[in-house]
Structures are given as structure tokens and as C-alpha cells.
Design brief:
Elements: H1 2-19, H2 54-57, E1 63-64, E2 70-71, E3 78-81, E4 84-87, E5 91-92, E6 115-125, E7 130-137, E8 142-148, E9 154-155, E10 167-170, E11 176-180, E12 191-198, E13 205-212, E14 223-224, E15 233-237, E16 242-249, E17 255-261, E18 276-279, E19 296-306, E20 308-316, E21 328-334, E22 361-365, E23 371-373, E24 376-384, E25 396-404, E26 409-419, E27 422-423, E28 428-442, E29 457-459, E30 488-496, E31 511-527, E32 537-538
Parallel strand pairs: 1-27, 6-11
Antiparallel strand pairs: 2-31, 3-26, 4-26, 5-25, 6-7, 7-8, 8-9, 8-10, 11-12, 12-13, 13-14, 15-16, 16-17, 17-18, 19-20, 19-32, 20-21, 22-24, 23-24, 24-25, 26-31, 28-30, 28-31, 29-30
């Protein structure tokens, strides 16, 4: 009887998935989510209540998993589990700060010498295999450019825009975003620059849009937005091929309006009704003990990472009278590009509470979000040393924090996790995990499909290589190192005796069940390639990647 009920439930789910493509349905996304109409959702005002993504309340009956590594940052993929979800924080790199103000144009204002990303952008450019950074050089004075071979040691080349300097843009500025657009067909528009500047006669703010073939020579702006707030930023959502202007709003004092358009340049102009209230801080953002006020959303940078949008939320907890803003960065995750899930409100990258530290004040994220560097993610951010007894910024620098690849959240412990019904076109199952793990594939009756059973399963590193070791733990919630018995890899294949691959199940709704013993599971995916290439998005890129998606697999050689 139970088997028959399972078959009926499975059939209903599959029909719902197919039926959702009928006339009148909204846009269907790569992950099976159907967007509501009208889109984007329109609300008259914002509140401090946490967002509730509709796709978590009512996920698709069957979830396609052909795009990217599938992360466990929420329950979108999880039907049943007795494992514990753990969220992990970034670790500060020992070389910090990795970029300091040390040139005449960066130190022209002696009180606030500046070489920091204020969003701006940090990217790996596959054209010449270099890390590239755009940053505020001199406090609100202009934009500079730096390069690196490893993402840690940076050089400031002498360019021809302002002879003998690394300046690429002069003039009073605030927030800026530089985007390396690897999908752009016109080589003259490969780089896009969104620069928040004072409006005419110094009144209000506007965003000037410029393009460049090399990120150095920008020319005159090609577009200009209507009036905006000063901390407005821009990102590209490749899942839907739209550019999103995150416009600073006065709702809740500091929050965001949303404007999307398939063209970055044409999208710079909008009518009032086209920019809709979007997101702010919420009641789960804890007040500081010394300020005791509701935090606000100071900025939101976002980028496509693997199978979802990753949001870096700069939270403003208030302004002390005797130090720079103690802003910090939290994370959010979106599977439709608009609604955000923020399950962990701890600072992902926080300020130091020790005066004299380089990051005592105002930590904020970089445009591009993060880079994939081997088995680690690199997050660049700005930080300010501050001046005791003053709200001034002091020395402004750029720092680096790192995290295990896919390491935002893991499912931990001894137990099982069963996914919702999924479909795939690939052949090879891969996991990012540490510890003892086995997997099986379940059919519509809930029973394992031979030979894809737990008893037939083995998990091992790609090519038989030794598994990399998880970096040492820190007091800020990073992953502890595995035991010597644990198998640990960010890209290890799952195999079954009696089957070369999963091609026999391609296109059929199935469930995956993972069995863990003293283990952690960060992600899974089904790849068309034996290398483990996820064909998901790699944020701001990284060594070995030739485009915006992972076509490589196991950590590329640096």
C-alpha cells in the first residue's frame, strides 16, 4: 500500500512539474521555479520582517539540477534528513591587508589615505590570466587599477590615463561597480563601469555607465541613471540574463529598490514604477549592545555562484560617536534572483573590536562577490582603521577572506539526507564532502534502483589523487580539520559497482539519498563530464576557468 501511495505522489509531482509549463504560467527558471506575475513583485513599502522566498514554501514538484553544484544553504533540495545544517564563516588571510595606500594620489588626504574596494570589482581575467582589481584610490577621489598573479600580492601598474599612475578615473565619486562581462559579444564593451557621482550642480546622485575593452580606457559615459542614492550598485544575473540595479532607497532609512533590464546600458534609464521596493535589513539582524537600534541595509552586492545567486549584505548597525561605522558583511542566497533567504545573521566578515586593528571600522564587500581559487573561495573587502574619538575612516585598505569552495553550509553528522525528486541530463554524480559517505538512487516507489544502491557505492577523489586537507579551524566558526580516516575533497566522484555512470536514469525523476557517518556534505551535482565540471557559475572567475561557468571540474591548476 505504501509503495502504491508513493507512486501516486510521485506521479502527481511529475505532472505538476510538467503542467506548470502551460499557458499563463510565469517564466520558468533553470531550477524549475516558476516566477509569479507580475515580475518583479511589487510592494508598496518595505518592512523589517524577514523575506520569505515563495519557492521554499512551495518548491517545484521536480527540480532540474543541470546547472551547477547544488548547495544546502536552505531546504529547497531537501525532502527529509536527520543531519544538522551548519553555516560557516570566512577566515581572514594572514597577509591582510593585501592592498594599502602607498602612492601620492592615494595618500593626498592625510587623514583618510585610501586604497579600498567600495564595491568596485575584483575579477580573474582569463584573457591574460591575471587577477584584476578596481578600487577607490584616495578618499572619494577616483578609481585605480591593480593586478596580481596569485590574488595576494598586488601590483599597481603605471598607466597612460594619468601618466605615471594607476589611476583610470578621476573626479569625486562614491560607490562604483566594475563588471567583467564574459558574455558580451562586443569586445569594446567587455568591461562595464557603474559609477555613482554627484548630480548636476552637486545636487543628489546619479550613476554614470561607461564601457571599455581593457578596463583601463573608459572614454565618455554612454548612459546615465535618474536620481539615485549614493550607495547604488549593479550586478548581472546570468540565470535570467538581466542586469540588476540595486538602488539605494530611503525606505527603512537604508534599503534597496530593484530595477532589472536585459541591457546594462538601456537599463540605466527607468520610469518610477520600474524600480520596485526590494529588500532591507530585518528583525533577525541583532542590534549592537552599545547602540541598541534596528540595523539597516547599507549595501547589497550579488553574483551568480554555481546554482544560485549569492548576496553580500553590508549591514549598518548604527553610528557610534567615537569610531567609524562598524558595518559588517552577512550572506544571503536566492534561487529566483529577487527573494533572499538569510538563514545566518552572524557577520560572515566582521569588524574588529580592537582599536588599532586595520579593520576596526566599516567592512564592506567587493563587486564580483568572490573568486574560485583552487579549493577555496576568495572574498575581497574594504576595511577602515578609524580614528579613536572620531567617526572618520582613517586608513582605508583592502582585505582578503577565504572559505572552502561551496563551504557556506554543510549537512553534518551521522544519518541520511534524501532529496526531493530531481532530474538531470548528466552522467556522473559528484560530492563536496568530508568523512564517510555513501549514496543511492531511489525510484518512484522510494526503493533503491539497482545497481545504484548503498552497498554498491564507493566514493573517491578524481583520478585517485589524495584528498586535500580542510584548512585549520578558527575561533570564528570555520570547519574543523577532518580526522585522518576522513576522506575529504571538494570534488569527488560517487561510483557504483555494475554501472559505468548514471546515463540510464537521465531525464527521469529520481531521489538521491546520502548516508553519512561522522561526515559533512557541502554540495552534490551530476556532471556530463568525468572531470566533475558542474557547468555552474564561478562568480568572478578564477585560475583555470576560461568563461563564466565551470567547464573544468576538479580544482584547476593555479
Amino acid at each position: 500500500m505504501r509503495s502504491r501511495l508513493a507512486i501516486i505522489a510521485y506521479t502527481v509531482a511529475a505532472l505538476a512539474w510538467i503542467g506548470g509549463m502551460g499557458v499563463g504560467a510565469g517564466e520558468r527558471l533553470y531550477n524549475g521555479i516558476v516566477l509569479p506575475t507580475p515580475w518583479p513583485p511589487r510592494a508598496e513599502k518595505l518592512t523589517n520582517e524577514p523575506m520569505s522566498p515563495p519557492y521554499l514554501a512551495k518548491p517545484p514538484g521536480v527540480i532540474p539540477i543541470d546547472v551547477g553544484r547544488q548547495l544546502f544553504v536552505d531546504d529547497f533540495l531537501v525532502e527529509k534528513t536527520d543531519l544538522k545544517r551548519t553555516f560557516h564563516l570566512a577566515e581572514l588571510h594572514p597577509a591582510n591587508p593585501i592592498l594599502k595606500p602607498d602612492t601620492a594620489w592615494e595618500t593626498a588626504t592625510q587623514r583618510d589615505p585610501t586604497a579600498m574596494v567600495f564595491s568596485d570589482g575584483v575579477w580573474f581575467d582569463p584573457a591574460d590570466k591575471l587577477f584584476k582589481m578596481w578600487y577607490m584610490g584616495g578618499y572619494v577621489r577616483g578609481t585605480c587599477y591593480a593586478t596580481s598573479k596569485d590574488g595576494i600580492a598586488w601590483e599597481k601598474p603605471k598607466l597612460d590615463f594619468k601618466e605615471g599612475t594607476n589611476v583610470v578615473q578621476e573626479g569625486y565619486r562614491d560607490s562604483a561597480t566594475v563588471w567583467l562581462d564574459l558574455e558580451e559579444k562586443d569586445p569594446q564593451k567587455r568591461f562595464k563601469f557603474f559609477n555613482a557621482v554627484r548630480g548636476t550642480q552637486g545636487k543628489g546622485w546619479t550613476c554614470l555607465v561607461s564601457v571599455s575593452p581593457d578596463g583601463i580606457h573608459w572614454g565618455k559615459p554612454v548612459a546615465q541613471t535618474p536620481p539615485i542614492g549614493d550607495r547604488t550598485t549593479v550586478f548581472y544575473n546570468p540565470f535570467r540574463r538581466v542586469w540588476v540595479y540595486g538602488i539605494r532607497s530611503g525606505m527603512l532609512t537604508r534599503s534597496r529598490f530593484y530595477r532589472e533590464h536585459p541591457d546594462a546600458i538601456a537599463g540605466a534609464e527607468w520610469k518610477p514604477e520600474e524600480a520596485v521596493p526590494w529588500v532591507g535589513a530585518d528583525t533577525n539582524d541583532p542590534p549592537r549592545d552599545d547602540l541598541k537600534i534596528q540595523p539597516q541595509l547599507y549595501n547589497l552586492d550579488a553574483v551568480a555562484y554555481e546554482s544560485l545567486m549569492l548576496g553580500l549584505f553590508t549591514i549598518w548597525p548604527g553610528q557610534p560617536k567615537d569610531r567609524a561605522k562598524p558595518n559588517y558583511v552577512c550572506l544571503g542566497f536566492s534561487r529566483d534572483g529577487f527573494h533572499w533567504s538569510r538563514p545566518d545573521h552572524r557577520p560572515f566578515i566582521g569588524v574588529s573590536e580592537k582599536y588599532g586593528d586595520w579593520n576596526w571600522g566599516n567592512v564592506q564587500s567587493a563587486g564580483g562577490g568572490c573568486l574560485v581559487v583552487g579549493d577555496r573561495l576568495y572574498f575581497y573587502f574594504s576595511a577602515r582603521a578609524g580614528i579613536r574619538g572620531s567617526t572618520a575612516s582613517g586608513v582605508c585598505t583592502t582585505g582578503l577572506a577565504t572559505l572552502r569552495r561551496d563551504g557556506f553550509a554543510s549537512m553534518d553528522g551521522d544519518g541520511t539526507l534524501t532529496t526531493r525528486p530531481v532530474t538531470f541530463k548528466g552522467k556522473h554524480l559528484f560530492v563536496n564532502s568530508a568523512g564517510e559517505l555513501q549514496a543511492e538512487v531511489l525510484g518512484e516507489d522510494g526503493a533503491p534502483i539497482a545497481p545504484f544502491t548503498r552497498d554498491n557505492c564507493s566514493v573517491g577523489p578524481v583520478g585517485g589523487a589524495s584528498a586535500p586537507r580542510v584548512p585549520s579551524s578558527s575561533s570564528r566558526g570555520a570547519e574543523p580539520p577532518p580526522t585522518t580516516e576522513a576522506r575529504d575533497s571538494t570534488c569527488q566522484p560517487v561510483r557504483w559497482k555494475g554501472a559505468d555512470d548514471l546515463s540510464a536514469l537521465a531525464g527521469k525523476p529520481v531521489r538521491l539519498r546520502f548516508h553519512l557517518k561522522d561526515a559533512r556534505l557541502y554540495a552534490f551535482w551530476v556532471s556530463p563530464d568525468a572531470s566533475g565540471a558542474s557547468h555552474g557559475y564561478v562568480a568572478a572567475g578564477g585560475p583555470g576557468f576560461t568563461g563564466p561557468t565551470d567547464t573544468v571540474g576538479a580544482a584547476p591548476a593555479r
